[in-house]
Design goal:
Bound molecules: phosphoenolpyruvate, magnesium ion
Mean pLDDT: 89
Strand content: 5-15%
Largest sheet: 8 strands, mixed
Radius of gyration: 25 Å
Number of strands: 16
Distance between the termini: 4 Å
CATH superfamily of the largest domain: Phosphoenolpyruvate-binding domains
Number of domains: 3
Structural class: alpha/beta
Shape: globular
Low-confidence stretches: 1-10
CATH class of the largest domain: Alpha Beta
Helix content: 40-55%
């Protein structure tokens, strides 16, 4: 949130999108066009037929090598049974019918290799999927996986491509999926700008985790940018300049220095608590996506991890991470954060996170579908090893467990029963773990918010996941740039819901945190404080600013603000009021 006088004279192109990660980046563009497995009909000239067949055969060969490597790695890590999936993929890959039909289509219909292969595979995949039998469904999924791999290799793997990024650049993409982002070399990225996405889409969360400025929802930016164009990305205002004039450039170079200076000043708060003027202390923790970001979290002065999204361990690979592998990851984080707590959220995939190691079939409404705890309660082979790994890590520090997407008490009880089972298994193996682990539930589905009183009787804490809660309460897809203006975390319905959840939980002696991106919205901090939130977990990049805000008010002042905004009728009114209030109060912060 930076108040700036945007330069008036602009040359080149100028785009306005949704600001999702603060700061200014200046650098050259690296454009990622298209989506990795989205294929368009493409005709080729007759003279290119041989070249196209060779592209196809080379991709088959590359895929064969990949599968060989995946098979042996899986076999040595988790046994031959688990490696069978890749053997199955190999059989699909070597099927002469698929190969011949594709070559025939390239030759006779003059289709590009990827489109020819896509149509052949799609035909068989659909035929298998139409048979209502688990075996055929699984084979259909095998075909889909092989199709994706081969097409990626025909097109030149986009993620390989990203890893080969030469020098630092600003990534310009239509969209960045979580699987794309896990493959990135973070050190070479100055910022992100994407056509698609909203404030809480995972590309936005990633950008904040990488601590680089980002703007999403720019709609047609990719059509206008070429590799090596000079870009200015303003992550506060949500603006992107392509080949700007000298005056604009100078303005932003100055602004970059100013932001740097503000951050330097905020860094003196590092070792101070997030305590109001009258002594009320808030747990101010950080969200963690990648284990190796833990040092940064500490550097930014976090007193704990309020949300450890374990999903990225699963997204970064094609096979499932084993219990031991997960244990090592969790243990490293927990030991490093000790004595501060680490809230480990159990697997939350589905929605826009689609790891290759969990078969999530295409759905009409993924965010309302097979997701998070719903997957885990069905896939004990995934859930129990994770629970055991978390329990084992609890012997090395302060761990709390958080269940995502709970929508009923029944689901919560089932999750707790499985946790008990994991405990029993460890006891049998004589493996140590802590007996004193707090259990929490994410409040991110409206039904859970409404029964927060019932839930809070069965757990130690609640953590409000505002990213999903806002999407489900307001019926606004969190990743859809077209309706992003409707995605409002200061909507009266959201504020009332938070108020009710906090009150219900406190009546039962259960503490409440906020781990969604609203916690890092400086316009919301005083309201959350006034509503009685006990803990806030944010991206490290905004943590110092949020701490400064908390330390500058008394608790009664925040209660007055919360009461005031709760009497207002629209999100626009609340936002305007908060913006004015904050600008008046915090002259040394740029809003
Ligand atoms: C949320 O929904 O607010 C949340 C923190 O979880 P995620 O963004 O990973 O869905
Ligand atoms: Mg969520």
């Amino acid at each position: 949130m930076i108040e700036t006088k945007t330069p008036t004279k602009k040359s080149g192109y100028f785009f306005k999108g949704i600001p999702v990660s603060p700061g200014v980046a200046i650098g050259k563009a690296f454009v990622l066009s298209g989506e990795s497995v989205k294929i368009e009909v493409e005709q080729i000239p007759a003279k290119d037929i041989h070249k196209e067949i060779k592209r196809f055969e080379d991709a088959l060969e590359k895929t064969r090598e990949e599968l060989k490597a995946a098979t042996s790695a899986t076999r040595s890590r988790i046994g031959s049974e688990n490696a069978k999936i890749f053997e199955m993929h190999n059989l699909v890959l070597d099927d002469p019918v698929l190969k011949e039909e594709t070559i025939q289509k390239i030759r006779d219909d003059k289709l590009s290799a990827e489109y020819a292969f896509y149509t052949v595979m799609q035909k068989y995949q659909n035929q298998l999927a139409a048979v209502k039998d688990e075996y055929f469904q699984m084979r259909s999924a095998d075909l889909r996986d092989v199709k994706r791999r081969v097409i990626r290799n025909i097109q030149g793997d986009r993620t390989d491509f990203l890893q080969k990024l030469e020098g630092a650049a600003i990534i310009i993409a239509r969209d960045l999926t979580p699987s794309d982002t896990v493959a990135l070399d973070r050190h070479k990225i100055l910022g992100f700008a994407t056509d698609l996405g909203g404030k809480t889409s995972h590309s936005a969360i990633m950008a904040r985790s990488f601590r680089v400025p980002a703007v999403v929802g720019l709609r047609h930016l990719t059509k206008y940018v070429k590799n090596n164009d000079r870009i200015i990305l303003d992550g506060n205002e949500g603006v992107v300049y392509v080949n700007p004039d000298r005056k604009t450039l100078q303005y932003y170079q100055k602004l970059q220095k100013k932001i740097h200076e503000i951050n330097r000043q905020l860094s003196v708060l590092k070792n101070l608590p997030a305590r109001t003027l009258d002594g009320r202390e808030i747990e101010l923790a950080a969200n963690l996506e990648f284990t190796d970001e833990v040092e940064t979290v500490i550097e930014f002065g976090a007193r704990g991890i309020g949300l450890y999204r374990t999903d990225y361990l699963f997204l970064a690979r094609t096979d499932l991470p084993t219990e031991d592998e997960q244990f090592e990851e969790y243990k490293a984080v927990v030991e490093r954060m000790r004595p501060y707590p680490v809230i480990i959220r159990t697997l939350d995939v589905g929605g826009d996170k689609n790891p290759q190691n969990i078969n999530i079939p295409p759905e009409a409404n993924p965010y309302l579908g097979y997701r998070a705890i719903r997957i885990c309660l069905e896939r004990h082979d995934v859930f129990l090893p994770q629970l055991r790994a978390i329990l084992r890590a609890s012997a090395y520090g302060n761990i709390k467990i958080l269940f995502p997407m709970i929508s009923s008490i029944k689901e919560l009880r089932e999750a707790k029963t499985l946790l008990e089972k994991a405990r029993r298994e460890l006891r049998k193996r004589k493996v140590p773990f802590s007996d004193d682990i707090e259990i929490g539930v994410m409040i991110e589905v409206p039904s859970a918010a409404i029964i927060a009183d019932l839930i809070s009787r069965e757990v130690d804490f609640l953590s409000i996941g505002t990213n999903d809660l806002v999407q489900y309460l307001l019926a606004v897809d969190r990743g859809n740039e077209r309706i992003a203006y409707l995605y409002q975390d200061l909507h009266p319905a959201v504020l009332r819901t938070i108020r009710d959840v906090v009150q219900a939980a406190h009546r039962n002696g259960t503490w409440v945190g906020v781990c969604g991106e609203m916690g890092g919205n400086p316009l919301a901090t005083l309201i959350l404080l006034g509503l009685g939130i006990d803990e806030i977990s944010v991206s490290p990049i905004v943590l110092p600013e949020i701490k400064k805000i908390i330390r500058s008010v008394s608790h009664p002042e925040s209660v007055r603000i919360a009461e005031k905004v709760l009497s207002m009728t629209t999100a626009e009114e609340i936002e305007k009021f908060m913006m004015r209030y904050m600008r008046r109060k915090f002259k040394d912060l740029i809003f």
